[in-house]
Every structure is written in C-alpha cells, then in structure tokens.
Amino acid sequence: MNATIDQLKATLDQHRPLDPAIVANLREDLIVRWTYHSNAIEGNTLTLRETKVALEGITIGGKSLREHLEAVNHRDAILLLEDLVREAGPLSEWTIKSLHHLILKGIDDDNAGRYRSVNVRIAGAEHLPPDQVVVPELMERFIAWYQDEATDLHPVERAARVHSDFVKIHPFADGNGRTSRLLMNLELLKAGYPAAVLPVERRLDYYAALDRDHVHGDPGPFLDLISDIVKESFRPYFHALGIPFATTGT
To answer: Structure pTM?
Structure first.
C-alpha cells in the first residue's frame, strides 16, 4: 500500500511547484466534489451540480435551507482547513471544535463546536459511542495519542487513524462524519498529499469498515479503503500534468 502511494507522491513532487492555474482549477473542483460527497454520505440530497450552484450563492428550488447551509458551511470549513495547513500546527481540540463549529453554523448553533451532553446512537451501526460523561477525557487522550505516537505512523495511516479514532468517540451530537473527513484531509494536506474524497458510492463499505475497526478491533479494511481513495486523489493532478496515471503502479 504505502509503496504505491509513496511512488505517486514522489512523482507529483517532481513537478512541484505546480502552475498556479492548475492549482486554482484543481482546488475549485476539489471543493465542490469534497463538499458534495461528504454531505451526501450524511443524507444531503443536493446533486454535484446543485452543490456547485449553491456554493455560487444560488438557491435551488425544492431543497431545504439546511441543505444549502450544509454546502456553504462545508466550503467554509475547507477554507479554514487551508489556513490550518499553511500554519502547519499540531492537531488540537481547538482545531477540532473550530471546524465543527463551521459545519453546524446556522443549523444547530447550540451544539456547534461543543462536545455532546447526551448519549447517542449511530443509525445502522453496531458500534455504540461512549457515554457523554467520558467524552472530554477521551478527547484529551485522543490528542495525547496524536502528540505522542501519531508522528511515527505513515501519513496515510495517521490520517486514517485520526479519522477512525475520532469518529469512534463521536464527541459531537451531530456533524461527526464531516468533521472526521476534514481532520483526515488536514493530516494528508499537511504531509504534502492531495485531499482525498470519500465517494458517496462507497458509503456502505465505509460504514462497514468503521464498524469492523470500532467493534472488532480490525483496522485493516478501513486503512485499505482510505489507501484506495488516497491513490485516486492523485488522478486529477496527473491528468492536469499530462502524466499517464496507469504507469505509476496503481
């Protein structure tokens, strides 16, 4: 897994710095695709094209205000994430709460950026999130693990672990999935990788892999899934640069 991804990154690094026009085009496409897929996984019914239009400030008939806010909020969270990448600071509870606050801004302001005060269940999942009383302590341990051990992991494995371990705690009443995917990409981008978009078409595999990790202690399927989407994240760059993607070992 890591050898193929390392080869892809090494090839891309050889072409850096990229032409600003390429960077701008890929960024615009990424924001729309990332926002669409991450929201669609959570049940948002905006199509990819409708998401693009909503991000341009146009109201889509027949769609709820919440769905429009989810699109705009996710875009704003990506913009904050870009600032965090430039600062290259370590993951912190402030970072997590700030990203989550943007996800729920104007949708659920009482819970935006605040750890849950209720116990929750994840619809369709076997895993039962921990009691709300222990959430602050578990989040402190999560950050301590990140600071003490995460730097020893391959960046893709670190990103996957951050994603899975965070969503296992399920620290917020809502918005955990979107926040976890933002945190995963925060780690990838800080390490010089493209942001990886988890396609809504793989939602069932995604949930099953998370449950496998959380309930049975087997992180393999989830790491394999994240590795797959990380590999795919290089494809738009190779296309823009005119590099044959199929000859890179994928």
So the answer is: 0.95
